[in-house]
Amino acid sequence: MCSNGCKEFAKVKCRRRRKQAARGAVEMKVKKLQRLVPGGEGLNTDRLFLRTADYIQHLRLQVDVLQTLSKICKP
């Protein structure tokens, strides 16, 4: 029979597995983001997030410019 200590050990082991799985999921998402953002590969996480914010602003500006041009050039 298993004492209360075995149950606690199993709980701790399960928590560790969940943390490792979550950490792996975050690392995978960071790697995907590095591939999406120009110049993102090889950056550490904090620099990657700053570069991502700049890239989003750049894309928004491009959309605004294109929308304005499409309104101006309507027949």
From TrEMBL:
Keywords: Nucleus, Transcription, Transcription regulation
Main location (coarse class): nucleus
Biological process according to GO: regulation of DNA-templated transcription
Domain of life per record: Eukaryota
InterPro entries listed in its UniProt record: bHLH_AtIBH1-like (IPR044549), IBH1-like (IPR044660)
A single Gene Ontology CC term: nucleus
Protein localization: Nucleus
Name of the protein this chain belongs to: BHLH domain-containing protein
Organism this protein belongs to: Castanea mollissima (Chinese chestnut)
